[in-house]
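Morning, I've got a small favour to ask if you have a moment. I've been staring at a protein lately and its backbone has me curious. You're getting the sequence in one-letter code plus the fold written as tokens. I've dropped the whole record in just underneath, so have a look:
=====
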Amino acid sequence: MKPRVTPQDHAPAAMPASRRAAGASRVVLPEPLPLEARLDECLKRRRSTREYAEAPIPLQELSTLLWAAQGVTSPGGLRTAPSAGAIYPVKSYMLAFRVQGLAAGFYSFDPEQRTLTLLAKGTKQERVAKVCGDQQCVAECAAGLLLTAWYGRLRREFGDAAEQLALIEAGHIGQNWHLAAAALRLGSVSIGKIDPVALKLLLPLPEDEHPLYLLITGKP
């Protein structure tokens, strides 16, 4: 039986206070840029980019990518990417390596507030690349969006289908990211080869979240 979705279900599940960063540095993101390229142009232009220039990307372009990936598009909290039951179990973290106007570090992304909260300073880029199978593109990119799954409410609503639904949602988010990158003429690629245990030892992720997917970008 399909779970009944009530209006309040459209709002993302609240994160327990123990999972929030207390007293952490918070950055309000600039307004996203308008994406004026036609959709068919972005679809044709999208390619997996594995070589990146050393140039940083502007914070406003990063803000645009984040909005495209998981931006809020209605007063009820609905987002650019669909989610089963509007639960939004996929959480977003930003690895800022070379972003103009943003200190290098590991941030959590709040789509509703359009903010980044600093969780750890410094890039750790080479170590992140190592836990992603020593992929050189991870060591060269300007930034990466790490997607994790928090299964709590999703399992209560959908049972054994929870993991599959979270993976599908991550795929929607990834395609939005790549099409926006194509519109901005940035390079991007998806990284699925991740050692989740090593990544959780390296980065301050909540114990009950599971790393799924890394989306990286940079100047081609």
The first helix runs from residue 39 to 45. Helices lie at 39-45, 59-70, 125-131, 136-140, 152-158, 162-183, 196-202. The two ends are 47 Å apart (CA to CA). DSSP finds seven helices and nine strands in the chain.
